[in-house]
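ugh finaly. both done.
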Amino acid sequence: MTDRLAALELLADEDTAARTAALAHFHDSYKHQPNVLLKWLYVQAASDMEGNVANIRALMQHPSFNVTDPAAVSALLGGFSDSIVNFHAEDGSGYAFMADAVIEVGAAL
Protein backbone atom coordinates (compact mmCIF):
# COMPACT_ATOMS: atom_id res chain seq x y z
CA MET A 1 0.00 0.00 0.00
CA THR A 2 2.76 2.46 0.88
CA ASP A 3 4.46 2.01 -2.49
CA ARG A 4 1.19 2.32 -4.40
CA LEU A 5 0.26 5.47 -2.56
CA ALA A 6 3.71 6.99 -3.11
CA ALA A 7 3.47 6.29 -6.84
CA LEU A 8 0.00 7.80 -6.94
CA GLU A 9 1.27 10.95 -5.18
CA LEU A 10 3.96 11.36 -7.84
CA LEU A 11 1.49 10.92 -10.69
CA ALA A 12 -1.09 13.23 -9.11
CA ASP A 13 0.90 16.34 -10.03
CA GLU A 14 0.96 15.48 -13.73
CA ASP A 15 -1.89 16.09 -16.17
CA THR A 16 -1.39 12.86 -18.12
CA ALA A 17 -3.28 9.77 -19.19
CA ALA A 18 -1.11 7.77 -16.77
CA ARG A 19 -2.40 9.90 -13.88
CA THR A 20 -6.01 9.36 -14.88
CA ALA A 21 -5.50 5.61 -15.30
CA ALA A 22 -3.64 5.26 -11.99
CA LEU A 23 -6.29 7.17 -10.06
CA ALA A 24 -9.08 5.10 -11.62
CA HIS A 25 -7.24 1.85 -10.92
CA PHE A 26 -6.55 2.82 -7.31
CA HIS A 27 -10.21 3.75 -6.79
CA ASP A 28 -11.45 0.54 -8.37
CA SER A 29 -9.02 -1.54 -6.31
CA TYR A 30 -10.01 0.02 -2.98
CA LYS A 31 -13.59 1.19 -3.53
CA HIS A 32 -14.84 -1.05 -0.72
CA GLN A 33 -12.31 0.32 1.77
CA PRO A 34 -13.50 3.79 2.82
CA ASN A 35 -10.37 4.61 4.82
CA VAL A 36 -8.18 3.95 1.79
CA LEU A 37 -10.43 6.10 -0.39
CA LEU A 38 -9.74 8.98 1.99
CA LYS A 39 -6.13 8.76 0.85
CA TRP A 40 -7.32 8.72 -2.78
CA LEU A 41 -9.22 11.95 -2.14
CA TYR A 42 -6.31 13.54 -0.28
CA VAL A 43 -3.73 12.73 -2.97
CA GLN A 44 -5.82 14.40 -5.63
CA ALA A 45 -6.69 17.41 -3.51
CA ALA A 46 -3.08 18.03 -2.45
CA SER A 47 -1.88 17.90 -6.05
CA ASP A 48 0.08 20.91 -7.25
CA MET A 49 -1.22 20.39 -10.77
CA GLU A 50 -2.17 23.81 -12.11
CA GLY A 51 -5.88 24.54 -11.98
CA ASN A 52 -6.66 21.68 -9.62
CA VAL A 53 -9.71 23.46 -8.20
CA ALA A 54 -11.86 22.11 -11.05
CA ASN A 55 -10.82 18.56 -10.15
CA ILE A 56 -11.68 19.11 -6.50
CA ARG A 57 -15.08 20.53 -7.39
CA ALA A 58 -15.72 17.34 -9.39
CA LEU A 59 -14.55 15.20 -6.47
CA MET A 60 -17.06 16.95 -4.22
CA GLN A 61 -19.75 15.43 -6.47
CA HIS A 62 -18.11 11.98 -6.66
CA PRO A 63 -20.03 9.08 -5.07
CA SER A 64 -16.99 8.27 -2.91
CA PHE A 65 -17.17 11.70 -1.25
CA ASN A 66 -19.72 12.36 1.49
CA VAL A 67 -19.96 16.00 2.49
CA THR A 68 -21.38 15.01 5.90
CA ASP A 69 -18.41 12.74 6.71
CA PRO A 70 -15.83 14.79 8.62
CA ALA A 71 -12.99 12.47 7.54
CA ALA A 72 -13.88 12.88 3.85
CA VAL A 73 -14.15 16.66 4.20
CA SER A 74 -10.82 16.73 5.99
CA ALA A 75 -9.17 14.58 3.33
CA LEU A 76 -10.45 16.72 0.47
CA LEU A 77 -10.35 20.25 1.87
CA GLY A 78 -7.39 19.59 4.14
CA GLY A 79 -5.55 18.10 1.20
CA PHE A 80 -6.35 21.15 -0.88
CA SER A 81 -4.97 23.43 1.82
CA ASP A 82 -1.69 21.47 1.60
CA SER A 83 -1.30 22.47 -2.06
CA ILE A 84 0.82 25.60 -1.95
CA VAL A 85 0.35 26.18 -5.67
CA ASN A 86 -3.43 25.98 -5.71
CA PHE A 87 -4.54 27.03 -2.23
CA HIS A 88 -2.26 30.06 -2.22
CA ALA A 89 -2.80 30.92 -5.90
CA GLU A 90 -1.79 34.50 -6.63
CA ASP A 91 -5.24 35.36 -7.98
CA GLY A 92 -6.93 34.35 -4.71
CA SER A 93 -8.94 31.58 -6.40
CA GLY A 94 -7.80 29.00 -3.84
CA TYR A 95 -9.08 31.06 -0.94
CA ALA A 96 -12.34 31.77 -2.78
CA PHE A 97 -12.83 28.08 -3.47
CA MET A 98 -12.15 27.16 0.16
CA ALA A 99 -14.61 29.76 1.41
CA ASP A 100 -17.30 28.45 -0.95
CA ALA A 101 -16.54 24.85 0.03
CA VAL A 102 -16.79 25.61 3.75
CA ILE A 103 -20.16 27.28 3.17
CA GLU A 104 -21.30 24.24 1.16
CA VAL A 105 -20.21 21.85 3.89
CA GLY A 106 -21.93 23.95 6.53
CA ALA A 107 -25.16 24.01 4.56
CA ALA A 108 -25.10 20.22 4.20
CA LEU A 109 -24.88 19.62 7.96
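ok and the 2nd:
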Amino acid sequence: MATVVYTDMNVIAILVLLITIVKSSTLNINVPSYVAVFETNTVELLCKVKFMSDGQHIVWYRDNIKIDPNNKQDRYKIQEGTYKENAQNYDLEISNVSRNDKNTKYTCRVMDGTKEMERSTEASLDIMNVPVPTHPYFYPICQKITAGVTVGEQYRVSCETEYTEPPVQLILRKGKQVLCNRTVTEEDQACSYTIDVKLQDADTQFTCSQIGPNVQDYPPGVTNICTIGKLNILQPPTVDIKGDTSATKGREVVLICDPEDAKSCKWKFEKNKNIKASQDNTGNACILRLTLSKSSTLPSLNITCIAMNAIGRSSSTKTIYFDDSKTTGLPVVDWTVNPSVRSPLWTGVIIAITGCFAIVIVLITSVILYCGWRHFLPVYSHTDVPSQDIYSEQYNRSPYRMESVQKCIGIQVSDEAGECTDDVEKKLTIEPTKRDEQHYSHICSP
Protein backbone atom coordinates (compact mmCIF):
# COMPACT_ATOMS: atom_id res chain seq x y z
CA MET A 1 0.00 0.00 0.00
CA ALA A 2 2.82 2.33 0.80
CA THR A 3 4.38 1.67 -2.58
CA VAL A 4 1.21 2.67 -4.30
CA VAL A 5 1.14 5.92 -2.37
CA TYR A 6 4.72 6.61 -3.34
CA THR A 7 3.94 5.97 -6.97
CA ASP A 8 0.97 8.35 -6.86
CA MET A 9 3.13 11.10 -5.39
CA ASN A 10 5.63 10.75 -8.26
CA VAL A 11 2.86 11.02 -10.80
CA ILE A 12 1.58 14.20 -9.19
CA ALA A 13 5.06 15.77 -9.20
CA ILE A 14 5.52 14.91 -12.86
CA LEU A 15 2.17 16.47 -13.73
CA VAL A 16 3.00 19.69 -11.87
CA LEU A 17 6.33 19.90 -13.72
CA LEU A 18 4.62 19.45 -17.05
CA ILE A 19 2.09 22.16 -16.26
CA THR A 20 4.90 24.55 -15.30
CA ILE A 21 6.69 23.86 -18.55
CA VAL A 22 3.53 24.48 -20.54
CA LYS A 23 2.87 27.74 -18.72
CA SER A 24 6.41 29.03 -19.30
CA SER A 25 6.63 31.73 -21.98
CA THR A 26 7.82 31.16 -25.53
CA LEU A 27 9.01 33.98 -27.86
CA ASN A 28 8.66 34.52 -31.56
CA ILE A 29 10.19 37.54 -33.42
CA ASN A 30 8.29 37.93 -36.66
CA VAL A 31 11.06 39.83 -38.47
CA PRO A 32 14.06 38.60 -40.41
CA SER A 33 17.55 39.02 -39.04
CA TYR A 34 17.99 42.21 -41.13
CA VAL A 35 15.26 44.77 -41.80
CA ALA A 36 15.89 47.20 -44.68
CA VAL A 37 14.57 50.69 -44.08
CA PHE A 38 15.20 54.13 -45.60
CA GLU A 39 16.49 56.97 -43.52
CA THR A 40 13.84 59.24 -41.95
CA ASN A 41 11.21 56.48 -42.20
CA THR A 42 9.52 54.54 -39.36
CA VAL A 43 9.99 50.78 -38.80
CA GLU A 44 8.35 48.20 -36.50
CA LEU A 45 9.97 45.13 -34.93
CA LEU A 46 7.39 42.47 -34.01
CA CYS A 47 7.57 40.41 -30.81
CA LYS A 48 4.88 37.77 -30.22
CA VAL A 49 4.83 36.13 -26.78
CA LYS A 50 2.93 32.93 -25.89
CA PHE A 51 2.07 31.54 -22.46
CA MET A 52 3.64 34.37 -20.45
CA SER A 53 3.23 33.71 -16.72
CA ASP A 54 1.71 36.13 -14.23
CA GLY A 55 4.14 38.73 -12.98
CA GLN A 56 6.29 38.51 -16.11
CA HIS A 57 6.67 41.43 -18.55
CA ILE A 58 8.39 42.36 -21.81
CA VAL A 59 11.44 44.59 -22.16
CA TRP A 60 13.13 45.68 -25.42
CA TYR A 61 16.90 46.17 -25.58
CA ARG A 62 19.07 48.07 -28.04
CA ASP A 63 22.63 46.76 -27.97
CA ASN A 64 21.98 45.37 -24.47
CA ILE A 65 20.70 48.75 -23.25
CA LYS A 66 17.15 48.82 -21.95
CA ILE A 67 14.72 50.96 -23.94
CA ASP A 68 12.47 53.13 -21.78
CA PRO A 69 9.07 53.47 -23.53
CA ASN A 70 8.02 56.23 -21.12
CA ASN A 71 10.70 58.60 -22.37
CA LYS A 72 8.67 61.02 -24.53
CA GLN A 73 11.83 62.52 -26.06
CA ASP A 74 12.94 59.14 -27.36
CA ARG A 75 12.15 57.67 -30.78
CA TYR A 76 10.86 54.37 -29.38
CA LYS A 77 7.33 53.30 -28.64
CA ILE A 78 6.03 49.84 -27.55
CA GLN A 79 2.68 48.85 -29.01
CA GLU A 80 0.85 46.20 -26.95
CA GLY A 81 -1.56 44.11 -28.98
CA THR A 82 -4.71 42.24 -27.89
CA TYR A 83 -4.25 38.99 -25.99
CA LYS A 84 -5.56 36.26 -28.26
CA GLU A 85 -5.09 32.48 -28.33
CA ASN A 86 -2.66 32.57 -25.41
CA ALA A 87 -0.45 35.05 -27.28
CA GLN A 88 0.11 38.80 -27.28
CA ASN A 89 2.22 41.17 -29.41
CA TYR A 90 4.72 43.62 -27.95
CA ASP A 91 5.94 45.50 -31.05
CA LEU A 92 8.72 48.09 -30.98
CA GLU A 93 8.16 51.17 -33.19
CA ILE A 94 11.29 53.16 -34.17
CA SER A 95 10.62 56.56 -35.76
CA ASN A 96 12.93 58.79 -37.80
CA VAL A 97 15.45 56.08 -38.51
CA SER A 98 18.96 57.45 -38.94
CA ARG A 99 22.32 56.19 -40.07
CA ASN A 100 23.28 55.68 -36.44
CA ASP A 101 20.74 52.84 -36.31
CA LYS A 102 22.64 50.81 -38.89
CA ASN A 103 23.84 47.37 -37.63
CA THR A 104 22.37 47.94 -34.16
CA LYS A 105 21.01 44.81 -32.40
CA TYR A 106 17.48 44.71 -30.99
CA THR A 107 16.14 41.94 -28.71
CA CYS A 108 12.82 41.24 -27.02
CA ARG A 109 13.14 39.72 -23.53
CA VAL A 110 10.75 38.21 -20.96
CA MET A 111 11.55 39.47 -17.48
CA ASP A 112 10.36 38.24 -14.11
CA GLY A 113 11.17 41.19 -11.89
CA THR A 114 14.80 41.90 -12.67
CA LYS A 115 15.51 38.33 -13.74
CA GLU A 116 15.65 37.54 -17.43
CA MET A 117 13.61 34.44 -18.30
CA GLU A 118 14.00 34.28 -22.07
CA ARG A 119 15.07 36.43 -25.03
CA SER A 120 14.49 36.48 -28.75
CA THR A 121 17.09 36.22 -31.46
CA GLU A 122 18.70 39.53 -32.51
CA ALA A 123 17.22 41.71 -35.21
CA SER A 124 19.31 44.32 -37.05
CA LEU A 125 18.37 47.30 -39.23
CA ASP A 126 19.80 47.66 -42.70
CA ILE A 127 19.68 51.44 -43.22
CA MET A 128 19.39 52.67 -46.80
CA ASN A 129 20.76 56.19 -46.91
CA VAL A 130 19.06 59.13 -48.60
CA PRO A 131 20.36 62.69 -49.13
CA VAL A 132 18.85 64.08 -45.97
CA PRO A 133 18.82 67.84 -45.29
CA THR A 134 21.27 68.47 -42.48
CA HIS A 135 22.20 71.91 -41.25
CA PRO A 136 23.78 73.97 -42.71
CA TYR A 137 23.33 72.09 -46.00
CA PHE A 138 20.10 71.07 -47.71
CA TYR A 139 20.48 68.80 -50.70
CA PRO A 140 20.78 69.57 -53.49
CA ILE A 141 23.36 72.30 -52.97
CA CYS A 142 23.45 75.00 -55.68
CA GLN A 143 26.56 77.00 -56.45
CA LYS A 144 25.14 80.52 -56.21
CA ILE A 145 25.95 83.15 -58.84
CA THR A 146 27.75 85.99 -57.08
CA ALA A 147 30.23 87.53 -59.54
CA GLY A 148 29.41 89.50 -62.68
CA VAL A 149 30.07 88.08 -66.15
CA THR A 150 30.50 89.68 -69.55
CA VAL A 151 28.89 88.87 -72.87
CA GLY A 152 30.87 86.17 -74.71
CA GLU A 153 32.44 84.85 -71.51
CA GLN A 154 32.07 81.17 -70.55
CA TYR A 155 30.45 80.52 -67.19
CA ARG A 156 29.92 77.23 -65.36
CA VAL A 157 26.74 76.57 -63.38
CA SER A 158 26.46 73.49 -61.17
CA CYS A 159 24.80 71.76 -58.22
CA GLU A 160 25.63 68.67 -56.17
CA THR A 161 24.13 66.19 -53.75
CA GLU A 162 25.12 63.20 -51.60
CA TYR A 163 25.72 59.76 -52.96
CA THR A 164 23.36 57.16 -51.52
CA GLU A 165 22.05 53.72 -52.36
CA PRO A 166 19.90 53.79 -54.36
CA PRO A 167 21.31 57.03 -55.92
CA VAL A 168 19.23 60.10 -56.72
CA GLN A 169 18.87 62.09 -59.93
CA LEU A 170 19.91 65.72 -60.55
CA ILE A 171 18.39 67.98 -63.23
CA LEU A 172 19.99 71.37 -64.03
CA ARG A 173 17.81 73.90 -65.88
CA LYS A 174 18.08 77.34 -67.47
CA GLY A 175 14.50 78.50 -67.27
CA LYS A 176 12.64 75.48 -68.69
CA GLN A 177 15.59 74.31 -70.77
CA VAL A 178 17.34 71.21 -69.39
CA LEU A 179 21.13 71.65 -69.33
CA CYS A 180 22.11 68.53 -67.34
CA ASN A 181 20.18 65.39 -66.32
CA ARG A 182 22.04 62.55 -64.64
CA THR A 183 21.99 59.99 -61.83
CA VAL A 184 24.83 60.65 -59.44
CA THR A 185 27.53 58.09 -58.77
CA GLU A 186 29.90 57.47 -55.93
CA GLU A 187 32.66 59.13 -57.97
CA ASP A 188 30.64 62.14 -59.17
CA GLN A 189 27.75 63.61 -57.21
CA ALA A 190 27.43 66.85 -59.26
CA CYS A 191 25.51 68.11 -62.27
CA SER A 192 27.12 71.01 -64.16
CA TYR A 193 27.04 72.88 -67.47
CA THR A 194 29.21 75.57 -69.13
CA ILE A 195 27.36 78.29 -71.03
CA ASP A 196 28.46 80.98 -73.46
CA VAL A 197 27.09 84.15 -71.89
CA LYS A 198 24.64 86.10 -74.02
CA LEU A 199 22.85 89.33 -73.22
CA GLN A 200 19.44 87.61 -73.24
CA ASP A 201 20.64 85.28 -70.44
CA ALA A 202 20.50 88.17 -67.94
CA ASP A 203 16.85 87.59 -66.98
CA THR A 204 16.94 83.78 -66.98
CA GLN A 205 16.74 81.81 -63.70
CA PHE A 206 19.01 78.78 -63.21
CA THR A 207 17.71 75.99 -60.94
CA CYS A 208 18.63 72.44 -59.88
CA SER A 209 16.17 69.66 -58.95
CA GLN A 210 16.83 66.48 -56.96
CA ILE A 211 14.53 63.51 -57.60
CA GLY A 212 14.50 60.27 -55.61
CA PRO A 213 14.48 56.82 -57.25
CA ASN A 214 11.17 55.20 -58.08
CA VAL A 215 11.27 52.50 -55.41
CA GLN A 216 8.82 51.45 -52.74
CA ASP A 217 8.84 53.35 -49.44
CA TYR A 218 11.37 55.89 -50.69
CA PRO A 219 10.96 59.09 -48.57
CA PRO A 220 9.12 61.78 -50.56
CA GLY A 221 10.97 64.57 -48.75
CA VAL A 222 14.12 63.78 -50.74
CA THR A 223 12.66 65.46 -53.83
CA ASN A 224 13.81 69.06 -53.59
CA ILE A 225 14.91 72.08 -55.63
CA CYS A 226 17.49 74.83 -55.17
CA THR A 227 18.08 78.11 -57.01
CA ILE A 228 21.39 79.06 -58.61
CA GLY A 229 20.22 82.56 -59.53
CA LYS A 230 20.40 84.90 -62.50
CA LEU A 231 23.53 85.96 -64.36
CA ASN A 232 24.81 89.42 -63.56
CA ILE A 233 25.90 90.40 -67.04
CA LEU A 234 28.27 93.36 -67.18
CA GLN A 235 28.37 95.44 -70.36
CA PRO A 236 29.50 98.87 -71.54
CA PRO A 237 27.01 101.66 -70.82
CA THR A 238 24.23 102.62 -73.21
CA VAL A 239 24.35 106.32 -74.12
CA ASP A 240 21.51 108.55 -75.35
CA ILE A 241 21.48 112.36 -75.65
CA LYS A 242 18.18 114.17 -75.03
CA GLY A 243 17.45 117.69 -76.21
CA ASP A 244 16.66 119.79 -79.32
CA THR A 245 18.81 119.54 -82.43
CA SER A 246 18.10 123.15 -83.41
CA ALA A 247 18.81 126.32 -81.46
CA THR A 248 18.77 130.08 -81.87
CA LYS A 249 21.91 132.09 -81.54
CA GLY A 250 22.01 134.05 -78.32
CA ARG A 251 19.69 131.64 -76.52
CA GLU A 252 20.64 128.77 -74.25
CA VAL A 253 20.25 125.16 -75.37
CA VAL A 254 20.30 122.31 -72.85
CA LEU A 255 21.36 118.71 -73.54
CA ILE A 256 21.04 115.78 -71.13
CA CYS A 257 23.09 112.58 -71.23
CA ASP A 258 21.68 109.89 -68.88
CA PRO A 259 23.51 106.63 -69.73
CA GLU A 260 22.52 103.19 -68.39
CA ASP A 261 25.00 101.04 -66.40
CA ALA A 262 27.51 103.89 -66.24
CA LYS A 263 29.59 105.15 -63.34
CA SER A 264 30.51 108.49 -64.95
CA CYS A 265 30.05 110.54 -68.11
CA LYS A 266 31.50 113.65 -69.75
CA TRP A 267 30.93 115.99 -72.73
CA LYS A 268 33.20 116.56 -75.70
CA PHE A 269 32.84 119.26 -78.41
CA GLU A 270 35.00 121.66 -80.38
CA LYS A 271 36.07 124.69 -78.37
CA ASN A 272 35.02 128.09 -79.72
CA LYS A 273 35.36 131.57 -78.26
CA ASN A 274 31.76 132.33 -79.27
CA ILE A 275 30.41 129.39 -77.26
CA LYS A 276 29.54 129.73 -73.59
CA ALA A 277 29.08 126.32 -71.94
CA SER A 278 28.63 124.89 -68.44
CA GLN A 279 28.35 121.28 -67.27
CA ASP A 280 26.44 119.86 -64.30
CA ASN A 281 26.15 116.27 -63.05
CA THR A 282 23.00 114.94 -61.33
CA GLY A 283 23.43 111.33 -60.28
CA ASN A 284 24.67 109.45 -63.33
CA ALA A 285 23.30 112.13 -65.68
CA CYS A 286 25.43 114.83 -67.33
CA ILE A 287 23.78 118.17 -68.21
CA LEU A 288 25.27 120.58 -70.74
CA ARG A 289 24.08 124.22 -70.98
CA LEU A 290 25.37 125.91 -74.12
CA THR A 291 24.85 129.36 -75.71
CA LEU A 292 26.21 130.55 -79.06
CA SER A 293 26.71 134.31 -79.39
CA LYS A 294 24.56 136.18 -81.92
CA SER A 295 27.62 137.42 -83.78
CA SER A 296 28.91 133.90 -84.44
CA THR A 297 28.74 132.50 -87.96
CA LEU A 298 28.98 128.89 -86.76
CA PRO A 299 26.15 126.97 -88.48
CA SER A 300 26.30 123.77 -86.40
CA LEU A 301 28.17 122.02 -83.62
CA ASN A 302 28.83 118.30 -82.98
CA ILE A 303 28.48 117.37 -79.30
CA THR A 304 29.49 113.95 -77.90
CA CYS A 305 28.63 112.33 -74.58
CA ILE A 306 31.09 109.69 -73.34
CA ALA A 307 30.05 107.24 -70.56
CA MET A 308 32.29 104.74 -68.73
CA ASN A 309 32.07 101.74 -66.39
CA ALA A 310 34.32 98.84 -65.35
CA ILE A 311 33.75 97.02 -68.66
CA GLY A 312 34.46 99.88 -71.04
CA ARG A 313 33.13 103.09 -72.53
CA SER A 314 30.43 104.11 -75.00
CA SER A 315 29.55 107.38 -76.69
CA SER A 316 26.80 109.14 -78.61
CA THR A 317 26.99 112.26 -80.79
CA LYS A 318 24.32 114.83 -81.64
CA THR A 319 24.57 117.78 -84.05
CA ILE A 320 23.08 121.13 -83.01
CA TYR A 321 22.07 123.51 -85.82
CA PHE A 322 21.98 127.27 -85.12
CA ASP A 323 19.86 129.94 -86.89
CA ASP A 324 19.66 133.74 -86.79
CA SER A 325 15.93 134.05 -85.93
CA LYS A 326 14.85 136.84 -83.56
CA THR A 327 14.53 135.72 -80.03
CA THR A 328 11.39 137.81 -79.33
CA GLY A 329 8.54 135.52 -78.40
CA LEU A 330 10.70 132.43 -78.19
CA PRO A 331 10.03 130.20 -75.20
CA VAL A 332 11.95 130.61 -72.01
CA VAL A 333 13.54 127.26 -71.27
CA ASP A 334 13.41 125.85 -67.76
CA TRP A 335 15.48 122.63 -67.81
CA THR A 336 15.64 119.92 -65.19
CA VAL A 337 16.86 116.33 -65.39
CA ASN A 338 13.76 115.68 -67.53
CA PRO A 339 13.47 119.01 -69.43
CA SER A 340 10.16 120.64 -70.28
CA VAL A 341 9.46 123.87 -72.20
CA ARG A 342 7.17 126.56 -70.82
CA SER A 343 6.00 129.31 -73.25
CA PRO A 344 5.08 132.88 -72.12
CA LEU A 345 2.33 132.88 -74.77
CA TRP A 346 0.62 129.87 -73.28
CA THR A 347 1.10 131.33 -69.80
CA GLY A 348 -0.76 134.52 -70.87
CA VAL A 349 -3.58 132.52 -72.39
CA ILE A 350 -3.99 130.51 -69.21
CA ILE A 351 -4.04 133.68 -67.08
CA ALA A 352 -6.66 135.33 -69.36
CA ILE A 353 -8.96 132.29 -69.23
CA THR A 354 -8.64 132.14 -65.46
CA GLY A 355 -9.54 135.84 -65.17
CA CYS A 356 -12.64 135.42 -67.33
CA PHE A 357 -13.86 132.57 -65.16
CA ALA A 358 -13.33 134.70 -62.06
CA ILE A 359 -15.37 137.61 -63.49
CA VAL A 360 -18.25 135.29 -64.46
CA ILE A 361 -18.30 133.80 -60.97
CA VAL A 362 -18.40 137.28 -59.36
CA LEU A 363 -21.33 138.37 -61.60
CA ILE A 364 -23.32 135.23 -60.88
CA THR A 365 -22.71 135.60 -57.16
CA SER A 366 -23.87 139.26 -57.22
CA VAL A 367 -27.12 138.39 -59.03
CA ILE A 368 -27.85 135.60 -56.56
CA LEU A 369 -27.27 137.87 -53.55
CA TYR A 370 -29.42 140.70 -55.00
CA CYS A 371 -32.35 138.41 -55.80
CA GLY A 372 -32.12 136.86 -52.36
CA TRP A 373 -32.30 140.31 -50.69
CA ARG A 374 -35.35 141.35 -52.71
CA HIS A 375 -37.07 138.11 -51.78
CA PHE A 376 -37.09 139.06 -48.09
CA LEU A 377 -38.53 142.56 -48.55
CA PRO A 378 -42.18 142.81 -47.30
CA VAL A 379 -44.90 143.45 -49.85
CA TYR A 380 -47.78 145.63 -48.77
CA SER A 381 -51.19 146.32 -50.25
CA HIS A 382 -52.85 149.72 -50.07
CA THR A 383 -56.26 151.21 -50.76
CA ASP A 384 -57.26 154.76 -51.57
CA VAL A 385 -59.48 156.02 -48.78
CA PRO A 386 -62.29 158.32 -49.96
CA SER A 387 -62.90 159.78 -46.55
CA GLN A 388 -60.92 160.70 -43.53
CA ASP A 389 -61.38 157.30 -41.90
CA ILE A 390 -58.79 154.99 -40.46
CA TYR A 391 -58.81 151.47 -41.90
CA SER A 392 -56.78 148.33 -41.46
CA GLU A 393 -56.16 145.17 -43.52
CA GLN A 394 -54.03 142.02 -43.44
CA TYR A 395 -50.46 141.90 -44.66
CA ASN A 396 -50.14 140.05 -47.93
CA ARG A 397 -46.68 138.83 -46.93
CA SER A 398 -44.36 139.64 -44.05
CA PRO A 399 -41.13 137.97 -42.85
CA TYR A 400 -41.90 138.93 -39.24
CA ARG A 401 -43.94 136.99 -36.75
CA MET A 402 -46.04 138.97 -34.23
CA GLU A 403 -47.98 137.68 -31.27
CA SER A 404 -50.88 140.09 -32.00
CA VAL A 405 -52.75 140.35 -35.28
CA GLN A 406 -50.60 141.87 -38.01
CA LYS A 407 -52.36 144.79 -39.77
CA CYS A 408 -51.55 147.67 -42.09
CA ILE A 409 -52.95 151.01 -41.01
CA GLY A 410 -53.73 153.83 -43.44
CA ILE A 411 -55.27 157.28 -43.20
CA GLN A 412 -56.63 159.80 -45.62
CA VAL A 413 -54.49 162.94 -45.59
CA SER A 414 -55.65 166.44 -46.43
CA ASP A 415 -54.24 168.39 -49.32
CA GLU A 416 -52.40 170.74 -47.04
CA ALA A 417 -49.06 169.43 -46.05
CA GLY A 418 -48.38 169.16 -42.38
CA GLU A 419 -52.03 169.27 -41.34
CA CYS A 420 -53.90 166.13 -40.35
CA THR A 421 -57.70 165.99 -40.56
CA ASP A 422 -57.96 163.70 -37.60
CA ASP A 423 -56.13 163.02 -34.39
CA VAL A 424 -54.13 160.01 -35.58
CA GLU A 425 -52.04 159.59 -32.45
CA LYS A 426 -55.06 159.03 -30.25
CA LYS A 427 -56.67 156.40 -32.49
CA LEU A 428 -53.59 154.20 -33.21
CA THR A 429 -53.90 151.17 -30.97
CA ILE A 430 -51.05 149.07 -32.50
CA GLU A 431 -47.54 150.31 -32.07
CA PRO A 432 -45.78 149.82 -35.41
CA THR A 433 -42.35 148.30 -35.79
CA LYS A 434 -39.51 150.16 -37.38
CA ARG A 435 -40.38 148.64 -40.73
CA ASP A 436 -44.03 149.78 -40.21
CA GLU A 437 -42.82 153.31 -39.50
CA GLN A 438 -41.28 153.41 -42.94
CA HIS A 439 -44.64 152.42 -44.38
CA TYR A 440 -46.35 155.29 -42.52
CA SER A 441 -44.00 157.94 -43.81
CA HIS A 442 -46.90 159.54 -45.69
CA ILE A 443 -48.69 160.32 -42.41
CA CYS A 444 -48.24 163.93 -41.48
CA SER A 445 -47.17 164.97 -38.05
CA PRO A 446 -49.67 167.01 -35.91
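summary for the 2nd one i guess: The two ends are 178 Å apart (CA to CA).
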